Amino acid sequence: MYKLQIVLELLVLYVGISHSWDIAVSYKDVLEFYTNETQIVKINFKSHHLSALAYDEVHDRLLYVDKQNNNDAICGYNISPNTYYCYLETHGKNIHGLAFDPVTELVIFSDTNERSINWIQLVAKADNFGHLLIKLDEGIPTDIAVDSCRGYVYWISTNLPTPKIERL
């Protein structure tokens, strides 16, 4: 078995009618889908470095961050049909966390360079640079989660004497 260095977090997903996998794991330029601890699909992306995952169950689309030098891009992989599309290309941002809110259909992401949490709508990338949700005075926002029912955004705030989970 090859040595696996996971560059991305594991994303545990609800098993629904639209897909037949439980977990998606990403490392370097590979995305693997598993069910019951068995690999069912392995996809080699043309991306250089996959960095964060979020699942859009409404459109059966896996969202991810492609890190290329100093240019992070938020992209999507439509599982059926197998198509790729980039929604936002950034220059100088370091996108660390990524979440999808199915109620508002917004992608929420953290930028560790700017110490901010931002959002975008999934539309054509022209003139879509992201919108500021909150800028932190202290701490660096990393991983993100969305509670669609209650309307909260949660994130891990690091670089503090005591890292903590915060919400907006």
Automatic annotation (TrEMBL):
It is found in: Endomembrane system. One of its GO terms (molecular function) is Wnt receptor activity. It is a single-pass type I membrane protein. Gene3D superfamilies: TolB, C-terminal domain. InterPro entries: 6-blade_b-propeller_TolB-like, Cueball_EGF_LRP_Nidogen. One of its GO terms (biological process) is canonical Wnt signaling pathway. Transmembrane segments: none annotated. Keywords: Disulfide bond, EGF-like domain, Glycoprotein, Membrane, Repeat, Signal. This is Uncharacterized protein. It comes from Mythimna separata (Oriental armyworm).
